[in-house]
Amino acid sequence: MPDGLIASLRIDPVAVERLETVLEVYGPSHLLGNREAIRTEFVDFVTEDEALTEGVQLGYDSGTYTPGPVSQLEHRIVHQQQLILQHLKQAN
Hints:
Layout: E1 6-15, E2 18-26, H1 35-62, H2 75-91
Antiparallel strand pairs: 1-2
């Protein structure tokens, strides 16, 4: 972020109609002073992503969802997911 903070935002679907949003912010303590302001800033940002994630989960649950082609912008995400899946398979 421009002020020197690093933010990690994760939206975890935990059920078809429920998700958990995790925000982790890292940086020097003098920049982390107003944690509520940081959280409030991200709430507006995340609201749209949460709604999209909920819609996707409902689509998966409907049994009629068919994945489409991956956007060129998402190839890195898919690659990361494949690496994680390979690692998990090897761990089992």
